[in-house]
Structure to design on (257 residues):
């Protein structure tokens, strides 16, 4: 068993007040309890520096919700990997379904983001998953395979070395619904075996997270699915009590090594 990674995706939520009311107590809690899970906070980009100054000297790490495919230049409104590194960001979400949907990000564009993040020695978190329609059509594996293949096509066999894949059924995000546990287990085995086969290695050198309506009530059962290496949490990460419960429970499923 490896330690669980818990990623808090704040999406378009946050304020300097929320940093004090939510992040500060999380830091205090983590400092005064033996929390073994790896915690990554992904706030809106404008708060990254403030989060950085607050979590310095803690075990909490910072994630970014987005990045541009260019390093610099005339790209108004964009943020580069070097800028993220400048404020100690270690992880970057790539291909979140909300960016695929609302910003029309397609597989090749997402693969380019994944590549620039990896080339910068940051860790990309590739979000994949099927829509409700695809789910009902039994297309989940086909969609996951397609989204994973687009990364292999651009980066080659070692694409997923030291990266994170987050399987997030689009229909489970923010809906309060999650797939049946047997289904999740089956998809995780599929993703793991598919990536291992493509990269021609027996050793699993990447991590696979589950995301989509993770909360304080289902986290214990999800932790029992050994194939899940961690969780991407949206709305429940914006409530102090709910998030602390999630951290406490995931930590019980980590090993101290
Ligand atoms: C997400 O945004 O990736 C997510 C999983 O959100 P929620 O937990 O709210 O479903």
């Amino acid at each position: 068993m490896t330690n669980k990674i818990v990623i808090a995706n704040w999406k378009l939520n946050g304020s300097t007040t929320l940093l004090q009311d939510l992040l500060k107590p999380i830091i205090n809690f983590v400092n005064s309890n033996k929390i073994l899970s790896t915690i990554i906070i992904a706030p809106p980009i404008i708060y990254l520096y403030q989060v950085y100054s607050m979590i310095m000297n803690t075990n909490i790490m910072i994630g970014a919700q987005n990045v541009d495919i260019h390093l610099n230049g005339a790209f108004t409104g964009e943020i580069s990997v070097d800028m993220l590194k400048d404020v100690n960001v270690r992880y970057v979400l790539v291909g979140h379904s909300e960016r695929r949907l609302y910003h029309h990000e397609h597989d090749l564009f997402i693969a380019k983001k994944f590549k620039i993040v990896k080339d910068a020695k940051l860790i990309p978190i590739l979000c994949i998953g099927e829509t409700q329609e695809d789910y009902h059509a039994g297309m989940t594996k086909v969609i996951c395979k397609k989204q994973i293949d687009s990364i292999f096509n651009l980066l080659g066999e070692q694409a997923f070395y030291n990266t994170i894949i987050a399987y997030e059924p689009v229909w489970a995000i923010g809906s309060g619904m999650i797939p049946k546990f047997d289904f999740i287990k089956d998809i995780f085995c599929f993703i793991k075996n598919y990536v291992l086969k493509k990269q021609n290695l027996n050793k699993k050198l990447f991590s696979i997270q589950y995301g989509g309506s993770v909360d304080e009530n289902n986290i214990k059962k999800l932790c029992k699915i050994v194939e899940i290496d961690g969780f991407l949490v949206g709305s429940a990460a914006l409530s102090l009590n709910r998030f602390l419960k999630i951290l406490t429970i995931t930590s019980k499923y980590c090993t101290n090594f």
The mean pLDDT is 95. The chain has ten helices and eight strands. Strands lie at 5-9, 38-42, 61-64, 89-94, 123-128, 164-167, 207-211, 230-233. The pocket of phosphoenolpyruvate is lined by residues 9, 11, 168, 173-174, 211-214, 232-236 (CB under 6 Å).
